[in-house]
Specification:
- The chain is mainly alpha-helical and about 260 residues long.
- The chain has two domains: about 10-70, no CATH class; about 85-265, EF-hand (Recoverin, domain 1), CATH 1.10.238.10.
- It is about 55% helix and about 5% strand.
- It is built from 15 helices and four strands.
- It has a two-stranded antiparallel sheet with strand order 1-2. Strands 3-4 form a two-stranded antiparallel ribbon.
- Helix 6 runs antiparallel to helix 13, helix 8 crosses helix 9 and helix 13 (about 220-230) packs across helix 14 (about 235-245).
Length: about 260
């Protein structure tokens, strides 16, 4: 009812993994008890005909207060010690340095991250997307991450350009997740396998040049391949990608070769 989660994701994870006691609850704001009670009472009316419709509930004073609170921009992720901005910065700087091949693998595996990871990254995305448009523009990224330090603008622009893989001028949700998730997917066999299967479209256990041509049609990966190819034709870009990963030179990429390339960064 307060519009806040009782614990941070880190606190829940520590409790589940290490049995670390959960801290005593401390609400940042007092719940408006009367509005909350009235809202619940309306929803739970024993007389079905008297229960309000959803459009009526949206106009309830309690709901309207929660909507205004969300619009106020006070929904920054409640990570321990307010460290979320530093974590985003570290992730994006690392993403800029990764190879195009690994960027493509991250994009392909992002749908398979855990619910805990996804929720954490979703909160970060919403904190940066202050216009609530579902995408992040360059000004929003600057506003969220600029600290006034020399060189801020340069690395933020590099990060933005690296994330904007479909060259739309905005960073969508999937692009942000791929850039801000843990980039060491080579240590997560489940994610490596998910990425490999996204490339191995016929499921035969290898990635061929023909399959990479199909991947080019995926708009989430097209920008990465365009960056790699420069002025080359798409066919040449595919040849170069296979050449990077095909260690035994048999014309296709096995799972182990795929994993080996990811370990190179």
């Amino acid at each position: 009812m307060s519009g806040q989660e009782p614990y941070t994701l880190e606190e829940v994870a520590a409790y589940v993994e290490n049995n670390t006691p959960l801290p005593q609850l401390k609400l940042e704001e007092r719940i408006d008890d009367l509005k909350a009670r009235n809202f619940v009472a309306r929803c739970l009316s024993p007389v079905y005909e008297s229960r309000p419709h959803s459009d009526e509930l949206l106009k309830d004073p309690f709901v309207e207060a929660q909507i205004e609170r969300a619009k106020s921009g006070n929904h920054a992720p409640r990570m321990a010690n307010g460290s979320w901005k530093q974590e985003v910065e570290n992730s994006l700087k690392g993403y800029v340095q990764t190879s195009y091949f690994k960027k493509a693998a991250l994009t392909a595996s992002v749908r398979h991250i855990s619910a805990l990871e996804h929720e954490k990254l979703r909160e970060m995305f919403q904190a940066i997307d202050t216009s609530h448009s579902g995408t992040i523009n360059l000004e929003e990224l600057k506003s969220a991450l600029q600290t006034g330090m020399k060189g801020d603008i340069e690395w933020i622009m590099q990060a933005f350009e690296a994330m904007d893989t479909d060259l739309s001028g905005e960073v969508d949700y999937t692009e942000f997740l791929a850039a801000s998730m843990d980039s060491h997917i080579e240590d997560r066999r489940d994610l490596v396998w998910a990425a490999f299967r996204a490339f191995d479209t016929d499921g035969d256990g290898t990635i061929t040049k023909a399959e990479l041509k199909q991947i080019i049609k995926d708009h989430e990966l097209t920008g990465l391949l365009q960056e790699l190819q420069g002025d080359k034709e798409a066919q040449e870009a595919v040849e170069e990608l296979v050449q990077i990963a095909d260690v035994d030179k048999d014309g296709s990429v096995s799972f182990q070769e795929f994993l080996s390339v990811l370990k190179l960064g």
